Amino acid sequence: MRWPTFKAAGAACLLSQTAQALTVTATDTTSIKSAASTVAFGLLKYYTGNNTGDVAGNLPSPYFWWEAGAMFGTMVDYWFITGDTTYNDITSQALLHQVGDNNDYMPANQTRTEGNDDQGFWAMAAMSAAENNFPNPPADQPQWLALAQAVFNEYTTRWDTTSCGGGLRWQIFQFNNGFNYKNSIANGCFFNIAARLARYTGNQTYAEWAERVWDWEVGVGLITPEYKILDGASSTGSPGNCTKPDTIQWSYNAGIFLHGAAVMYNYTADGGSTTAGGATSAAWQTRMEGVLAESKSHFFGNDSILVETACETVGLCDNDQQSFKGYMLRWLSGTAQMAPDKFAEITPLLNANAEAAALACTGTSSGFKGTDGTACGFKWTTGGFDGQVGVGEQMSALSALMYSLVRPTTQAAVTSTSGGTSAGNPNAGQKNTTAVALTPITTGDRVAAGFLTSAIVMSVIGGSVLVMI
Ligand SMILES: *[C@@H]1O[C@H](CO)[C@@H](O)[C@H](O)[C@H]1NC(C)=O
Ligand SMILES: *[C@@H]1O[C@H](CO)[C@@H](O)[C@H](O)[C@H]1NC(C)=O
Ligand SMILES: *[C@@H]1O[C@H](CO)[C@@H](O)[C@H](O)[C@H]1NC(C)=O
Ligand SMILES: *[C@@H]1O[C@H](CO)[C@@H](O)[C@H](O)[C@H]1NC(C)=O
Ligand SMILES: *[C@@H]1O[C@H](CO)[C@@H](O)[C@H](O)[C@H]1NC(C)=O
Ligand SMILES: *[C@@H]1O[C@H](CO)[C@@H](O)[C@H](O)[C@H]1NC(C)=O
Ligand SMILES: *[C@@H]1O[C@H](CO)[C@@H](O)[C@H](O)[C@H]1NC(C)=O
């Protein structure tokens, strides 16, 4: 991901509202599936990677590469939850085309600007494919589980103890803006993947790393005693060494740690051992419940509707941030599956957001190529379409609809001993990713990639967002 750029809310966008096309009742599975199908159709209309001459797995500008990984992760779940196979072929094609020469989601076209979080969203898509038994690639192609393991292995080599007592840096390469920032999304990807690999494979090494990442986040105060997940902290400068976290809270940071903690709870409660001195299942349960409670109070309003509080109310969410709510709901439903006694608490949230998101999917916009009257806006709190359209808005609404279909009877993520069929390779990945760094990007590339050379610092003080350039 990049330093935030701000897109004006609904700017130059003619508000157009047609009669509500998606009628949804949370308890009516058929209505949700039908609405999800319509919204998925609109989402994939943004995708051009399967057009002749285009590159499979890439979204067109202004969307960055990581968001395509997030989108295909969503589509893996979409197929699993709804049974609709329409997009399986383009999903497989994208997930395999972007693996890169070393089967680790570091394709040469992306590597120079790639961050640990960017790589992580593709790896989590592969992990979901393994956990859902998404059709396995042909034997001569890389396999889902091995792809996630490759990224995990590379993360371990990037664990940086030269500052902050550890942690992953946001960026992989020194020449990229954000190399000196250690943040919760990069470490959250590591934590989430490690926890899921531990549960899938039963290999304790993964659990130890999950534990290490969590402890580090707590140690530097990125996870607070109230279980707020703060954005990140600078390793250099003054104050450096991660002593002064940027306190902004994003819903996807809360979600990624919530789900990872739930997976660790499930793993430790159901037979996986803890490391000597490590957290017990009771401790993981406390952590999971702590993040859940804090998330509910911070991101879900009194009417249970999810709000990206840091930017949504002031209309300053950028393209990346407009997709975050969808991941929160993905990981919220996954949490209920890992701790089924949480369904009673989580299902009402999922249901409320499915119905609210459907009401926001009633737009028509020149920027939207799906069916008129079904473009999804960004805010779910208004009871209608707010005029903002894009991949993030559409994908988040799809997530709100489809994850509400996750019930106690829905198949949960499988493991290698409960039906998982994806082939792994514990030694996948490169020993030295610095070797593939190539050269720093040129000025031309920076402009092309929309890279910001002047860092934008964003902080929230008393509920208002200050933007300083
Ligand atoms: C690419 O996939 C989308 C979504 O399924 C579809 O609408 C479009 O027709 C496909 N394009 C090509 C060239 O196959
Ligand atoms: C890299 O970019 C080239 C030129 O656009 C394209 O042909 C190729 O398919 C891309 N490779 C990947 C893995 O995206
Ligand atoms: C930097 O922070 C780590 C973790 O909090 C701490 O262990 C270490 O002593 C600090 N280093 C310096 C030079 O302050
Ligand atoms: C929720 O209700 C509490 C108590 O009435 C109030 O203090 C708080 O501001 C409300 N929060 C939101 C997001 O509306
Ligand atoms: C772990 O997850 C599985 C799959 O949903 C579930 O059946 C099991 O009850 C969970 N374990 C605990 C301790 O909640
Ligand atoms: C467990 O995972 C570690 C880390 O990837 C690996 O080195 C080790 O070989 C694995 N053990 C087994 C039994 O697969
Ligand atoms: C990794 O590769 C880079 C570039 O080839 C080299 O400078 C560096 O020493 C290597 N690091 C290790 C640990 O081998």
Automatic annotation (TrEMBL):
Query: Chief subcellular site?
Result: membrane
UniProt signal peptide: 1-21
Q: Where in the cell is it found?
A: Endomembrane system
Q: What is this enzyme's catalytic activity, as reactions?
A: Random hydrolysis of (1->6)-alpha-D-mannosidic linkages in unbranched (1->6)-mannans
Under which EC number(s) is this enzyme classified? Answer: 3.2.1.101
Q: Which GO terms describe its biological process?
A: carbohydrate catabolic process; fungal-type cell wall biogenesis
In the record, what terms sit under GO molecular function? mannan endo-1,6-alpha-mannosidase activity
Q: Does the keyword Transport apply?
A: no
> Which Pfam families does the annotation name?
Glyco_hydro_76
Q: What is this protein called?
A: Mannan endo-1,6-alpha-mannosidase
